[in-house]
Amino acid sequence: MRGAEAQLEPGERVIFETRQHLMAFSGAAGMALCVALVVLLLIRHNDLPQATEVQIAVVGALVSLVAALPALLRWRHTTLVLTERRLLVSAGGLRRREIAIPLGPAVLEQEPGFSGKLLDHGTVIVSTPDGQLSSVAHVAHAHELVERARAQARRSARRGAVPG
Predict the structure, then answer these.
(1) How many domains does the chain have?
(2) Which pLDDT does position 162 carry in this prediction?
(3) CATH code for the domain of 128
(4) Which residues, in sequence order, are CB contacts of 60 under 8 Å at separation 6+?
(5) Residue 78, phi then psi, degrees to nearest 5
(6) Residue-level pLDDT at 164
(7) Same domain, 8 and 82
(8) Are residues 53 and 93 in the same domain?
(9) H/E element holding 88?
(10) 74-113 confidence digits (pLDDT tens)
(11) Rg of the chain over CA atoms, in angstroms?
């Protein structure tokens, strides 16, 4: 949460905070299953010495671990924090991007997808201050985040409309 915490202003109150869902590892898990299948087929259908079979298994495990590193870094560095005035997004693997989005109309959208409806995650699409669209995939509790942000934007707009 270092990225989002660093963006907080003094006295700014956090309303809701979320991270990426474990579904962020679905690609890495699929890759690991494919590598395991290849390793299994190589060992099962070839008459190899036991040392070679162990080497194949170790290399397969290393390939699976290396393939999972980007997903792990992305999961660790991605945080979405809703405050009373804005949405703070910190996302990315090696090159983290940090965005502060003032709350307003049509800033946020959420696409749950099939598994998102079942497992409570989705893709959050935000409109950055410079007008570009940016998305964060596999956000846990994405629907709740978007609903709370819209409600907070309505409250802020009403407070701004009332003089004094």
Answers:
(1) 2
(2) 45
(3) 2.30.29
(4) 35, 36, 38, 39
(5) -100, 125
(6) 40
(7) yes
(8) no
(9) strand 86-91
(10) 898 888 888 888 888 888 777 878 888 887 755 677 777 7
(11) 21
